[in-house]
Amino acid sequence: MSKRGFEIVVFLFLIVNVFFVSGQGIEDIKVIFSNGVSTLDMTDYRGLKGTIEWAKEGINRLQDSKGRHIVVFEKQRVYKDEYVMVGNEDEGRLLKVSRIRIANDLFKPDDFSNDKVQFTDVISGDVYDTTIFVKYTGTVTVGGKVYGVSYFGDATIPENLRYVKVDYSEQGVVIYPSITTINNNKVVFYEPIDFSFSNYDGEGNSLSSLILADGDRYYTYVDFYKIDNGVYNVLLNRNVIRYVVLLDSSLPKTILPGIDRIYTLEIISVDKSIGVSTIKISDDIGNSVTEKFDKGETKKLLGATIKVIDVNTNPLNPFGQPDPFRDYIVKLSFDVATSDQLLNQYAGKLNTLDKTNTVEFPIKGFNYVLKGSGRLDESQVFIKDEKGKIMEQPALIIFGPNNRIIKSVKEFIRGDVDGNGAIDINDPVAILNFMFQSGRATCLDSADTDDSGVIDINDAVYLLNWMFLSGSAISEPKSLGNDPTPDSLDCACYGAQC
For 417, which DSSP code? Predict the structure, then answer.
């Protein structure tokens, strides 16, 4: 068979033989591995079809075939033409940063009238312009949800060196947000994440809470309480509705729906000299309580957890002048757990200076791991695969009727061409059938028994010699693993996944 003919066979094979996930008989997720690139074809909850390149073989971060990063960690740098995940589930969107225009005027350094920050929905193609309020700061509205946008750089540097940061405006920092498919599967783009508790965004801001999408309508909050240098208690708020509320002297009251009741939250007074807030919480079944809160203090009241995040006793208007209409602004978080969960479940103690120290917790069948990095106040986030092994390569995490992990690099046993977990006479027959009878070979790497990088008659002969004539040993991997030798062959799926 000519090289060109072989390439055509490989191309056709990879197009028709893909990973399939469906809950209602409608195809919504296909994954193709070709030429070292992992591509996702999906139909999202809007019924829109899109194609997303999400990983390259041998690279331990999410990126397309041109090396452009997919950012799944809130408030991180996203450069021109890179991607960022926003929202979650049926608000989830993958956006490309398509424009960062910064116009500098020597005579008007704060003028932003000609600045433009633009995002493009990767699936729908919709374009979203950032509304800029002051130089380098604005908001963008995507699917009815408003996100804060900061942009960085100036007119003297190339556009591809400028970057943005997206703020979800949640209490905590979102990682691994998901997109809902037409069949209600939730797709998460995964990569290992390194972060700093004391400087998670590169601007000196500290991290007290990570927010994880859990595929179950609500978020899971992982809260950190520092008890020593580099040592944190880790608590979980699982399946939680968390509100972030701004109340001020002109609007001191708000209504918040809970699981089994409706709450009213009201600022009674603020002692501006010491920043202590007096807050009343009541519900629609006749309960009421009034408590004083210091800034940063957390209390559990009436089945909810309230934290005063910040108290601003000198609010300014958009022009930087004292606001004549507001004497104070109080920022609070308000957590309500679902009926079958408790707030603040203890997960463990994380020592960032101990590389062997881990805190592990399951979320919807997937084990998340926080791991010490050996550096003060710096940690890592991983997910374990089905075998309990920490995944150091990108993957797709599928929340749905059958929770799945789809790795960017497929594991296989070389020589096990039919993927039944054992090498027998059926495997060289499968190679010959693939070559001469249009037979099916689901993992081309496994058929490359001599690890030459091509499939030819030698592979069947090599395997038969090893099986019956004490020929040379089959190359690695001899047990389930990845191909140690870079080549143009791919493993679209292996074994039970096919």
Answer: T
Q: What's residue 30's pLDDT? A: 83
Question: What is the per-residue pLDDT for 342?
Answer: 55
Same domain (yes/no): 492, 362:
no
pLDDT of residue 491: 75
- The one-letter amino acid code at 497 reads Q
DSSP 497: G
Q: Which domain holds residue 462?
A: 426-497
Cα–Cα dist 337/170, whole Å: 16
Task: Work out how many domains the chain is built from and give that number.
Answer: 3
The rounded distance, in Å, linking the Cα atoms of 169 and 431 is 55
Specify whether the CB–CB gap between 376 and 352 falls below 8 A. Answer: yes
DSSP state of 303: T
Q: Which residue ranges of the chain lie beneath pLDDT 50?
A: 1-25
Looking at residue 340, what is its pLDDT? 52
Q: In sequence order, what DSSP letters do the residues of 119-182 get, joined into one string? A: EEETTT--EEE-EEEETTEEEEEETTEEEEEEEE--TTS-GGG-EEEEE--SSSEEES-EEEBT
Neighbour count for residue 237 (Cβ, 10 Å):
25
Determine the Cα–Cα distance for residues 136 and 80; give it in Å rounded to an integer. 15
pLDDT at 23: 41
pLDDT attached to residue 420: 86
For residue 21, the tally of other CB atoms under 10 A from its CB is 21
**What DSSP element (H or E) covers 86?**
strand 83-86
Both 317 and 199 in a single domain? yes
Predicted TM-score of the model (pTM): 0.70
